[in-house]
Design goal:
The chain is α+β, with helices and mostly antiparallel strands. It has 23 helices and 14 strands. Strands 4-5-6-7-14-8-13-12-11-10-9 form an 11-stranded mixed beta sheet, sandwiched between helices.
């Protein structure tokens, strides 16, 4: 536990607690508790939450920039907020301004004033996406309390947040990621969501803060208390869905906002006007101001409805574009010139969409549940530029961009831009010139090759379309039988199957017995640079269960030897999904997926099989804007790999392997 939090917990029990009973409306007794300031008993749970948030913000700030700076920011931010709020409100109250007279009756400090200063300062030490999220949360909360409660502490909280932000900007450490900015559409989503949250707060706080004097307190008061919690909940849900670019969020949140707007207009503007409740003759300045506040409270929700209508189109998630014939032709050109990445040829697979950038860059991706997963690294000469441009492309369309199975170069560029990365697998890479079967560790490979030679087995290098029909039927049977033997559906995305074999650019290495029986088949994806073939990447591996032991090893060794003879320098045994890196622990979410899928798909045994060939492991990463998005990314990743996966099949598979 941090030093500051420990000291606070020691001091807190000594804070005076006083119970005060004062006369409320209709002569009812209202219990109030004074705990570092006057707080209604109805809000006591919120007071506890406020203190807990202060403790959490102290711990966070101390972790981000140390005890001394935390004390400095907390002290200066609180002093500036409280001092300026008291001076400002007292000056206006002395001039007879009614809102200030009401606000200054309440204490200018609560724990949340210091919390706002600390969190605003701490946001400056975060990476861009997390920084924007924290500032959005703090800013929305500060504005909601100011417009609803309207007490001195609410003014102090807003000023303290500004002071903390200024202090953080002046003294912050160097934080990477200034090159990437959210799109205008993303800002629209934030504004609309904030608007709904602020109105929802007004409805929720109206029932627990009877002394609230803010503009929106009037709005909350005219909504029927029976329905207010439901409407507030709809607004909050709508805000969350709008942040994801969902149409249903606009419908739910916008519909609830229309209800509030109608109630406010009728209760605060139309009804008083019809009953002559609005009369501007013979009014004092204070009375006129209260009339203006009532009109503003009645009209503000209607203005927010107009804002939602204007911004809805910009906030909505865009549909996923399907590749056209021209896109496929252009992609083929990019692959011919710059498709030397391990997974570049996977961009041509059905189900992928393709984005094209400048300088001949391209990125293949799939969108699932609002998350856009790239199919490996960007293709082209300017990967760093392509990555950030594609991220902006996704951001504009309401998708969360995720670069999946990218290598160190792309991951480092994204990390420099302020993104988070987590290990998701390893790729096994072989240099054909240095590959050998000598040595103790290659014993299994030598055994497989020697046995294949003794039994008259041949290695046939061909394509699916050029295969003899009898061989093709056997390959089809092997692939179908492999799928039928699994308790869970076949995985896709970066793992090919029978459909991906029927490609003239994809080569097959078939382990064929003398009697024409297929014992094993492997498929190999081309890697090209400047029009020349520079490598092969292993994709499909299927073996006859009753075939010769070592047939798969024989097929792969034969491919490596052929590649060396043809001057192809690199052969990749492809990536092993969800495999841990050497020296880097698998991420929490990735680890869970691995444990879930391991019994059915056997990633660990696949790792051990590839280790026989002495390939060097190259780490594969998943990069995304901020850690808090993992909750959305994990289920979307599972569904992009296994679109037909159902919970009942998962449970059945886990029981069968238990």
């Amino acid at each position: 536990m941090s030093v500051l939090v420990t000291r606070l917990l020691r001091v807190a029990p000594r804070i005076p607690l006083t119970l005060v009973v004062s006369a409320g409306g209709a002569g009812a007794a209202v219990a109030q508790v004074v705990w570092a300031g006057e707080i209604e008993l109805a809000g006591a749970p919120f007071s506890v939450v406020s203190w807990l948030l202060l403790i959490g913000s102290l711990a966070t700030a101390e972790w981000r920039f140390g005890s001394r700076r935390t004390l400095t920011v907390a002290s200066i931010g609180t002093a500036v907020g409280v001092g300026l709020a008291w001076a400002f409100l007292s000056g206006l109250a002395a001039l007879g301004e009614p809102l200030a007279e009401e606000a200054v009756r309440y204490q200018p400090w609560t724990p949340s004033v210091t919390t706002a200063a600390l969190l605003a300062a701490a946001s400056c030490t975060l990476r861009p996406a997390a920084r924007r999220s924290l500032r959005w949360v703090v800013g929305t909360a500060v504005v909601a309390m100011l417009l609803t409660s309207g007490h001195a502490s609410d003014v102090a909280r807003a000023l303290a947040a500004g002071a903390g932000l200024a202090a953080g900007i002046v003294a912050r450490r160097a934080v990477p990621g200034e090159a990437w900015r959210p799109s205008g559409r993303a800002r629209w989503r934030s504004v609309l969501a904030s608007s709904l949250v602020i109105v929802a707060s007004a409805l929720a706080l109206a029932s627990v803060t009877p002394n609230a004097t803010g503009v929106l307190a009037w709005t909350g008061a005219v909504v029927d208390p029976t329905f207010a919690p439901l409407v507030a909940g709809m607004l909050a849900v709508g805000a969350a869905l709008i942040l994801g670019g969902r149409l249903v969020g606009v419908l739910v949140g916008g519909g609830a906002l229309v209800v509030v707007a109608v109630a406010a207009l009728v209760g605060l503007v139309i009804a008083p006007a019809l009953s002559d409740g609005i009369d501007w003759s013979d009014l004092t300045g204070a009375d006129a101001e209260w009339q203006l506040v009532a009109l503003l409270a009645g009209g503000l929700p209607a203005l927010l409805v107009l804002l939602v209508l204007l911004g809805a189109r910009a906030a909505l998630r865009r549909p996923v574009p399907q590749p056209t014939t021209e896109d496929r032709r252009r992609l083929a050109e990019v692959l011919r010139e710059s498709g030397d990445g391990s997974f570049a040829h996977m961009a041509t697979w059905a189900g992928n969409s393709v984005w094209f950038g400048r300088h001949g860059n391209a990125i293949a991706y799939r969108v699932r549940d609002g998350v856009a997963f790239t199919v490996g690294d960007p293709i082209g000469p300017r990967q760093d530029e392509a990555a950030l441009s594609f991220a902006r492309f996704c951001d504009e369309r309401g998708w969360t961009p995720v670069f999946y199975s990218v290598h160190d170069a792309a991951a480092a560029a994204l990390e420099q831009a302020g993104w988070t990365r987590t290990p998701v697998g390893t790729e096994a890479v072989l240099d054909t010139a240095s590959f050998t079967l000598t040595g103790r560790k290659r014993q299994d490979l030598r055994t497989a090759v020697n046995r294949a030679e003794r039994e008259g087995m041949s290695a046939v290098w061909t394509t699916y379309r050029d295969c003899d029909p009898a061989i093709r039927r056997q390959i089809d049977t092997l692939c179908a039988g492999w799928v039928d033997g699994k308790r869970l559906p076949e995985m896709g995305f970066t793992l090919g199957g029978l459909a991906e074999l029927d490609d003239p650019d994809v080569r097959l290495m078939v382990a064929l017995a003398a009697d024409g029986r297929v014992h094993a088949v492997t498929s190999w994806l081309p890697r090209r640079k400047g029009g020349d073939l520079v490598g092969w990447t292993l994709d499909v591996m299927r073996r006859d269960r009753a075939g010769m032991p070592g047939a798969m090893e024989f097929a792969i060794v034969s491919t490596i030897r052929r590649a060396a003879e043809e001057g192809v320098s690199v052969v990749s045994l492809s990536g092993t999904p969800l495999a841990a890196h050497d020296g880097a622990a698998t991420g929490r979410v990735v680890g869970r997926l691995r444990r879930l899928l391991e019994p059915a798909y056997g990633f660990a045994s696949l790792e051990r099989f590839k280790a026989k060939f002495g390939a060097r492991p190259e780490p594969l990463w998943m990069c995304f804007p901020q850690p808090m998005q993992l909750g959305r990314i994990a289920p979307a990743l599972l569904r992009v790999y296994v679109p037909d996966l159902r919970l009942t099949r998962v449970v059945g598979a886990l029981r069968a392997t238990a």
